[in-house]
């Protein structure tokens, strides 16, 4: 569910020169909520919010619900206050994923295989190789929109441009149920009429930092040099990106099969948690699930990140480089507790106790990144590993024995369910 700002003046005819405009950004309109209305026609015209429970957050809201100020990631309790007569529905990931799969494989793949899927309801397409058959990018966009509406009774918006940045901004401003072509000659003009947050990737923090330098719009951003933006942002890389974006320039290619960047797991407590042992137990479960996913994908992780969300919905993340690449919960869990204690400014000596936390926690989780294929990753034993190996009668290191135990648990869980067995403390 996009919350990017839209400019009504941008939704106009920018011209019909399609030369070089071979990138399409396709975005389903209020996808989860629209699918719920498609299977419950009686909800049409009413505010529909996907996300229920006093601890839940809004996953999606249709356009009728957004008129009440409801957006994604908002606490469901707050959404109930804003729209007490709204229709609140539970999230049905299986249903949404199934329809998404059909759209990608039975509609979009009919046009080209040059598709970069970035989420369950959004993708980029390079249609340059499909023009011989379809004649123009707008013909493709019209057909896609018609097929999605006819087959699934939902709508999508399409942006057509010469690069991913402008195509995405075009689809955002075409919403809902629209199509917007931005000719190459109009890229800079189109982008520069936007507020700063109109550029994907500029969040509240960066906007505030740019505002402090007197930059309040993309037009003002475009007037700055890269050197000025480097001083404003403190990063030469960020400055170059912002300068190019403010001129409608984007050199990123369509990525067909993006390698998995991270594998994560997080959970929300039924009540705000103030005990270390309870948070630690949840982190252990998250580590087990992430480790099992790593093993199933034959991947190893080099970096661990712990995420905490607090009752006011603010959040904090911290990460560390692991001593060795791993796919074992027995390695991830101690590191996750270490990070947890650092984040809360608590001494490491309280690990394993029921100490009271320095602040209550609403949600906790981990993610593993820096992924590589296990078969192609060299794991160098540490000195402690080598000493342990020489002292152990079996000649096996503890880490090896623990990983073997976890593989055995994988087989048990596969047969009896994911919660049938867990590692001991």
UniProtKB/TrEMBL annotation:
Named cofactor requirement(s): Mg(2+)
Superkingdom in the source lineage: Bacteria
Reactions catalysed, as given in the entry: DNA(n) + a 2'-deoxyribonucleoside 5'-triphosphate = DNA(n+1) + diphosphate
Domain named UmuC: residues: 23-203
Keyword Lyase belongs to the record: no
Residue sites binding Mg(2+) per the record: 27, 121
Active site: 122
Cofactor binding annotation: Binds 2 magnesium ions per subunit.
Identification of the protein by name: DNA polymerase IV
